[in-house]
Specification:
Rossmann fold; binds uridine-5'-diphosphate; 2 domains; globular; 6-stranded parallel β-sheet; about 15% strand
Length: about 350
């Protein structure tokens, strides 16, 4: 069986790491399975791309399509043009796409139109918020996917409601958690940790990159200032996404306890999360990691496509109104935050299950 695995952006690299490993393991056990790894180039910055290949020992991509930057439409079009050439030159049995980025959607369309089957890993999750580009990517991808690999029973229900036949949906767990569990003993303390006197439970980690939080400068400023003023002077470590960095220059968010740093590698970032008092974020993947590590998570969004991080895990939706931040932080500091548990099948063995299913198709 010949697979083409697609990855384009930071969360994709984290999701494909265990899949490439599981394919190679199965291969070394004598099964006939190979893969070709296609990097679309959507994230091209070293800190958003190469670092993850190094940190997670992912074999280098077979090809990089080099489509970085540009608007949503330019990116989608660029990826489609180059991926079509790639698939014609290197035909495959199955294209595997992961997550919900532009590359996920663009490559699934190209594959399907060339008559190649598509498997979507992390299929079926929905925020029902169509102002999020990711939600559109999820809906389009799932409308043409052949095999759906899901992280939760809710995702299965969403797919059932779309009329997808049961035999094409596989509830397998979460590949992002495979990566976390297989690296949890390899996490690396960032150099600045001791320099700025951080220790377990005495700091907050902040990440922001969604348009709803970062595109409007006044709102971004209010959000950051509201956080900085209500964390009882604890240091805030803010690894800054390139999208947010563009907005931040020239706005007034200086505060003694705010430490803006470059995006961190996976091992350093999760060291920071594991030891934090809490994480404040608008990321999706991070809410899954905090759930597994049992770290309180305040999500600055009005909806989530990962409801199990709230119903089972440590995550709570605070919303995107900066005024909602103070009450949530008061709750955190009164030590009333929920403890949380582990969602079903988030056990580190998802990629193995996926590859076994692929071989049986
Ligand atoms: N992450 C990282 N370094 C950072 C910030 C995040 O390694 O400085 C990792 C994080 O552990 C998670 C993933 O990036 O695995 C989440 O990516 P992002 O928030 O960009 O995407 P989303 O999950 O919202 O799609």
């Amino acid at each position: 069986m010949k697979l083409t695995i697609v990855a384009g952006a930071r969360p994709n690299f984290i999701k494909i790491a265990p899949i490439t490993k599981a394919v190679l393991n199965t291969q070394s056990n004598g099964k006939s399975i190979t893969y070709r790894l296609v990097h679309t180039g959507q994230h091209y910055d070293k800190k958003m791309s190469d670092t993850f290949f190094e940190d997670l020992n992912i074999p280098l991509p077979d090809i990089n399509l080099g489509i970085g930057g540009g608007s949503q439409a330019e990116q989608t079009a660029g990826i489609m043009i180059e991926f079509e050439k790639e698939l014609i030159k290197n035909p495959t049995d199955l294209v595997i796409v992961v997550g919900d980025v532009t590359s996920t959607m663009a490559c699934s369309i190209v594959a399907k139109k060339l008559g190649t089957k598509v498997a979507h890993i992390e299929a079926g999750i929905r925020s029902w918020d169509l102002t999020m580009p990711e939600e559109i990517n999820r809906m389009v991808t799932d409308s043409i996917t052949d095999y759906f690999f899901t992280t939760s029973r809710v995702a299965n229900e969403n797919l059932n409601n779309m009329g997808i036949p049961e035999e094409r949906i596989f509830f397998v767990g979460n590949v992002m958690i495979d990566t976390l569990l297989s690296n949890i003993k390899r996490l690396v303390k960032p150099v600045f940790f001791d320099e700025i006197n951080l220790y377990k439970g005495n700091y907050i980690v902040l990440t922001l990159h969604r348009p709803a939080n970062v595109d409007e400068i006044k709102k971004l400023e209010a959000t950051i200032n509201e956080i900085a003023n209500n964390v009882e002077s604890l240091p805030i470590i803010f690894p800054i996404h390139p999208r947010t960095a563009k907005r931040l220059s020239g706005i007034n968010v200086f505060s003694d306890n705010l430490h803006i740093v470059d995006p961190l590698g996976y091992l350093e970032f999760n060291y920071l999360v594991k030891n934090a008092k809490a994480v404040i974020t608008d990321s999706g993947g991070i809410t899954e990691e905090t759930t597994v590590m049992g770290v309180p998570c305040l999500t600055l969004r009005d909806s989530t496509e990962r409801p199990e991080t709230c119903t089972i895990g440590t995550n709570e939706l605070v919303g995107t109104n900066p005024k909602a931040i103070k009450p949530a932080l008061l709750k955190l500091f009164s030590n009333e935050w929920k403890k949380g548990g582990l969602p079903e099948l988030w056990d580190g063995k998802t990629a193995e299950r996926i590859v076994n299913i692929l071989l049986s198709l």
